[in-house]
Every structure is written in structure tokens, then in C-alpha cells.
Amino acid sequence: MFPIRDHNPSGRTPFVTYALIAINIAVFLGTLDQDQSPRALMSFYANYALVPAFLSEGYGYSGLITSMFLHGGWLHIAGNMLFLYIFGDNLEDKMGHAGFTVFYLAAGLGAGLIHWLTDPFSAIPTVGASGAIAGVMGGYLLLFPKARVDILIILIVFFRVLPVPAWLMLALWFAMQLIGGWGTSSDESGVAYWAHVGGFVVGLALTVPIWLRLGGPRFWTRTHGQPPHPEKAYALDSSRVPRVQGRQRHTQVPRIRRK
């Protein structure tokens, strides 16, 4: 289950969201050649990924920021950029371009610090924008809890697009991160679940002042948790998606953790 679009149009062009997506894609494409050499890849991650053990030893702090623009594969960056595209424009609309930029970086920084606190001696490099994007999702939940989000349901051979309120989709996602964080160690899963949880909570907290400025509970009463603009309509609100067979290619690469 994952979102493919929302029905919450923004009132202005989300230049920062588009720029972040472009930067992440450009960095990913520009670093693809690192995969050709495991030694070069590990050296690259040591310099630019978030390595909790380095922070515990007093260096590697720049990785808290640079790791937000690195990704560990095509599916990793595709999933992260899809979530940013769906949820980022509406927060940028409310916060403004500069405010959203600061918010995004602060949420990513907070997610990285919480990941470090939960696993301070791990030497596994951590990369990905999802800590910051989790912050965007936390802010979205507070401001637009009843906005419709279309999710793709996959049950073996059954594919279905289903519209659900944002609070339901985001609450389920957050619960899955908590279960993943408590149920497995990040070294075993390869996923920085606590970075996701931390980013979501940080983003929610950073959005509270904006929510209060808009009226707090009165804002919810006035908008009923709905988008401030008329819902965006799509030609097909729900659809069946055909199953596509593909081949997987396995390549031996150094171990990293994705967030």
C-alpha cells in the first residue's frame, strides 16, 4: 500500500519542492558510477552518508545534511520523491518557499539526530531523504487531516486505487514505522525506522506554530480538515492496474541503511 496522488491542489507553484526533487535526482544520477567499485562506494558513504559511530566519536556531522540527498537505489529514490511530490507542495503553499526550505532541512536534521540517538555506535552508513519527507508528512497530517489521498492497494495479483483520508493513510504509515522500529533492529532490516518516526514527530511539532497561527482547533472547525482549495478531480478516481512481470538483477554492493 502506498500513495500515488492526493486531491489537495496548492495555490502557488511549489518551486522548492520541485527543486528538492531535481537536486535529489541529479545527485543520484551523478553518483551512479560509485556502484562500480565497492571500495569507492564505501569511501563515498564514509564522507557523505550519516554514520552514527562517527558522530559518537566527534566527527562526521556534515553527514546529517549530505545524507539527505543520497539514495541507495532506483526504488529508494523513486519512492522518496513520490512522497515528497504528493505532500510537499501543500506545506510549501502554507509555509512559503523560504519557510518550507528551513522546515524541510530541520526535519531531516532532527530525523538524523534521533536515528543517531537510537543507534549511536552503528557503523552502517545511512542515506535517504525520507527522514525529512516524514517531517513533511507529519506537517501535512496536522494541517490537512481529511484531504483525500489515492493509495495503490496490492494484494498478490489484485491491484486497486482507493481514495482514503490523509489521516488514515499517514496514521497507518506511522504505525508501520513504529512496528518496524520495535520489531527489528535497523541493522537487520536495513531501514532506519526511527529516523522515519523522529522526522514525522519533528515535522508535526514544527508545524504546530503555523497551525496555531491559523486558528488551531478553530482552523479545523473552519476547514473541517479539508484542503483550502476545491479538491482536484482526476479522470479516473479508482482503477485497476495490470500486473507487470519483470526480471531482477542481483549485484553485490556494500551494505547501507535506507531512510
Please characterize this protein's 3D structure.
There is one protein chain. With 259 residues, this protein is mainly alpha-helical. The chain has one domain: Rhomboid-like (Rhomboid-like fold), CATH 1.20.1540.10. The chain has eleven helices and five strands; from the N terminus they run βααααααβαββααααβ. The strands form two sheets. A three-stranded antiparallel sheet has the order 1-3-4. A two-stranded parallel sheet has the order 2-5. The longest helix is centred in the N-terminal third of the chain and has 22 residues, at 74-95.
Describe how the helices and strands are arranged:
Blueprint lengths: L1 E5 L8 H16 L7 H11 L3 H5 L6 H4 L7 H22 L1 H22 L7 E2 L2 H14 L4 E8 L2 E8 H18 L2 H4 L3 H21 L3 H7 L33 E2 L1
Parallel strand pairs: 2-5
Antiparallel strand pairs: 1-3, 3-4
Radius of gyration, in Å, reads: 19 Å
CA-based shape = globular
For the record, the CATH class is: Mainly Alpha
Structural class: mainly alpha
Overall pLDDT confidence: 87
How many structural units, i.e. domains? 1
Count of alpha and pi helical runs:
11
CATH architecture assignment name: Up-down Bundle
Helix/strand order, N-terminal first? EHHHHHHEHEEHHHHE
Count all strands and give the number. Answer: 5
Quick recap:
This protein has helices at 15-30, 38-48, 52-56, 63-66, 74-95, 97-118, 130-143, 166-183, 186-189, 193-213, 217-223; strands at 2-6, 126-127, 148-155, 158-165, 257-258.
Give the tags.
11 helices, 259 residues, single chain, Rhomboid-like fold, serine-type endopeptidase activity, mainly alpha, two-stranded parallel ribbon
